[in-house]
Specification:
By secondary structure, the chain is mainly alpha-helical. It contains 17 helices and three strands. It has three domains: 44 residues; 96 residues, Type II secretion system (T2SS), domain F (Receptor-associated Protein); 229 residues, Receptor-associated Protein, CATH 1.20.81.30. It has a three-stranded antiparallel β-sheet with strand order 2-1-3, with helices on one face. It is extended and about 95 Å long. The termini are far apart.
């Protein structure tokens, strides 16, 4: 079987393009005529072209921002009265991400064969999660697909913004650490050896502080290979341990216990949890299904266990707020807000407000981290330079 790319026009004159596997171009031609299309061109896709496309698709993953843009476009077009199939076809022609373009074309083909939009996208779980499928299904069932697409677009937008905030908070400490390491390497490589030459030329006994400093420097230089090997071994053991069940659980606990950063992780998840739960409940998804979907939105075993335990208690007949309280993970404020939402019958709105509150807390915590790291970096670098200067001023 060979792969062919075709361009054709339908009975209304609209341009159609796609790819199809066939024994020869005549089979593709016959297929197009059966569909009522007028062929314009049929070209065989060479092996080099397919390899190039696969490489590009592998390198360029589908981002939340791209999915948000897709949903916003679909919302606008469907609200304007354009059929969902026509909207997908139009959007797929202008998408730069080849992988997303190919997926949309496959979704379109499935829908043209009679499948629903939710069923079609559910066959691509790596791109469209269970959450996406549940929101779209609820919109189709309730007859309000544009509103479902609108909520899904907001979800992808919020997820993208929150992810960027957390990545920014993690990137700055990493930059500070790398900067300090480079400063130490520069001093040990270019500064201290020159002082060693001066000490050797002067001769005589050196002050105790200078001797201790140079002894520490000599120890590092002579055992540098062993130190690097030990660090690499620790990293390899850490990676291997994280792949085991107990090891992964331990690393999850450490991640949440990290000073400031652990607080950012937990607050960011709470914000995402409340926002997602609000969107799903507003879309008409059941509470049990909502908790089931949320349990697979995180890789942290502790958080996942808390959501799973909450769901199990809800199944047993407990209310949501009490179930969340017994899990031991959710803050008291979230539990109380959920309780208020249950009592007032406005859980979706209350969760949305709670999410907004925790997003502001994430912003505040990140600001605090940035404010603390700047003086820490200055003091650390200054301390390193001060030690070097004192060690050589004592001679």
């Amino acid at each position: 079987m060979k792969s062919y790319k075709y361009i054709a026009r339908d009975s209304s004159g609209q341009r159609k393009q796609g790819s199809r596997q066939a024994i020869s171009s005549n089979d593709v031609l016959a297929y197009l005529r059966e569909q009522g299309f007028t062929p314009i061109s049929i070209n065989e896709i060479s092996a080099d072209t397919k390899k190039s496309k696969r490489a590009q698709q592998h390198q360029k993953r589908i981002k939340s921002a791209e999915l948000a843009a897709l949903c916003w476009q679909l919302t606008t077009m469907v609200e304007g009265g354009i059929p969902i199939t026509t909207a997908l076809e139009t959007i797929s022609e202008d998408i730069e991400n080849l992988q997303l373009q190919q997926i949309l074309q496959q979704v379109l083909e499935k829908m043209q064969r009679g499948e629903t939009f939710s069923d079609s996208i559910s066959e691509f779980p790596k791109v469209f999660s269970r959450l996406s499928c549940a929101i779209i299904l609820a919109g189709e069932t309730g007859g309000d697909l544009p509103e479902a697409l609108h909520r899904l677009a907001e979800h992808f937008d919020n997820r993208d913004k929150l992810a960027k905030k957390v990545k920014g908070a993690m990137a700055y400490p990493a930059f500070v650490f790398i900067f300090i390491v480079l400063i130490v390497i520069f001093i040990m490589t270019f500064i201290i050896p020159r002082f060693r030459t001066i000490f050797d030329q002067l001769g005589g006994a050196l002050p105790a502080f200078t001797q201790a400093f140079m002894g520490f420097y000599d120890m590092l230089c002579h055992n540098l290979v062993y130190i690097i090997s030990a660090l690499l071994l620790i990293i390899i053991l850490g990676v291997l341990t994280s792949k085991t069940k107990k090891g992964h659980y331990l690393f999850c606990r450490i991640a949440l216990a990290l000073p400031l950063l652990g607080k950012i992780f937990s607050q960011a998840f709470i914000a995402m949890f409340c926002k997602t739960m609000s969107i799903l409940l507003a879309s008409g998804v059941s509470v049990l299904e909502v908790l089931d979907i949320l349990s697979v939105t995180t890789n942290n075993d502790i958080i996942k266990a808390a959501i799973t335990q909450t769901r199990e208690r809800v199944v047993e007949g407990s209310n949501i707020s009490l179930s969340m309280a017994k899990s031991g993970f959710f803050p008291n404020m979230v539990v109380k807000m959920v309780h208020v939402g249950e009592e007032s019958g406005s859980l979706s709105k209350v969760l949305e407000r709670t999410s907004d509150y925790y997003e502001r807390k994430v912003d505040s915590t990140i600001t605090t981290v940035m404010a603390l790291l700047e003086p820490i970096m200055i003091v650390t670098v200054g301390g390193i330079v001060l030690v070097v200067v004192l060690a050589h001023l004592n001679i």
